[in-house]
Write a structure and sequence with these properties.
By secondary structure, the protein is of the alpha+beta class. It has six helices and eight strands, in the order ββαααβββαβαββα. It has helices spanning 18-25, 31-34, 42-51, 105-120, 135-143, 173-184; strands at 3-4, 8-11, 58-63, 69-76, 89-96, 125-131, 147-157, 162-172. Helix 4 links the parallel strand 5 (89-96) and strand 6.
Length: 185
C-alpha cells in the first residue's frame, strides 16, 4: 500500500533503499535519541531494512519530488508493541533524516498515518512514546493531537544498553475526529 500527502509518499521499503537509509541512519543525532545506534555501514542498513523495516505497516517517508526515502513511520500492531494488548489499538513510531528536521514533514506523515490507522485499519486508539530529551518528537506528537498519558522513570533501551525516562501519549479515534473538525472551522 502507498499513502500520499501534499509533499510525501509513504510506501514500503525496498532493497534498493539501503543506501538512502544509511545516508540518514548513520547520523548520530538521529537513531540514538530514538533508541537505536547509528548505522555503521550500508550492509547494516540493509539488514535493518530486512529485519525491522519490512514489518507490516512500516513505510518509507519519501519526498514526492525525488521518490527517495528520508525517514520512516510505522504502526506497530498487536503482538509487536508493549503499549497495548488490544487488536484495535497500535503504537506509532517514526524518525526523519536530519536535513529535513523543522520543515513540518514529520507532522505531515504522522497525520496521514493517523488517518490510515483510524479510517483504513479500524483502530480506536494510537499510542506513541518518546525518550526524555527528544523534544522534536514530543513537539510532533503535540502538533498531531496526541494527549500525554504518563512518564516512566526506568525504561530499558536494549539496543543502546541504557535505561532512560520514557513518556507515553495517545490519541483516540474520537479525539482525532474532533481535532479534524475543529481545524476545518
Amino acid at each position: 500500500m502507498t499513502l500520499e500527502t501534499e509533499r510525501l509518499t509513504l510506501r514500503p521499503w525496498e532493497d534498493a533503499d539501503a543506501e538512502d537509509l544509511y545516508l540518514y541512519a548513520k547520523d548520530p543525532d538521529v537513531g540514538p535519541i530514538a533508541g537505536w545506534p547509528a548505522h555503521s555501514s550500508v550492509e547494516e542498513s540493509r539488514e535493518v531494512l530486512h529485519a525491522v523495516l519490512s514489518e507490516p505497516e512500516t513505510y518509507a517517508i519519501c519526498l514526492k519530488e525525488t521518490g527517495r526515502p528520508i525517514g520512516t513511520v510505522a504502526l506497530k500492531l498487536n503482538g509487536h508493541t508493549d503499549m497495548t494488548e488490544r487488536d484495535d489499538e497500535c503504537e506509532m513510531g517514526y524518525w526523519l533524516g536530519k536535513p529535513y528536521w523543522g520543515r513540518g514533514m514529520m507532522p505531515e506523515a504522522v497525520r496521514e498515518m493517523l488517518r490510515h490507522a483510524f479510517e483504513d485499519l479500524g483502530m480506536r486508539c494510537v499510542w506513541i512514546g518518546y525518550y526524555e530529551g527528544n523534544d522534536k518528537s514530543r513537539r510532533v506528537q503535540e502538533k498531531c493531537g496526541f494527549r500525554y498519558q504518563w512518564r516512566t522513570d526506568e525504561v530499558e533501551v536494549p539496543l543502546m544498553h541504557e535505561v532512560r525516562v520514557g513518556h507515553v501519549s495517545r490519541i483516540t479515534k474520537e479525539e482525532w475526529a474532533a481535532d479534524l473538525a475543529a481545524a476545518a472551522k
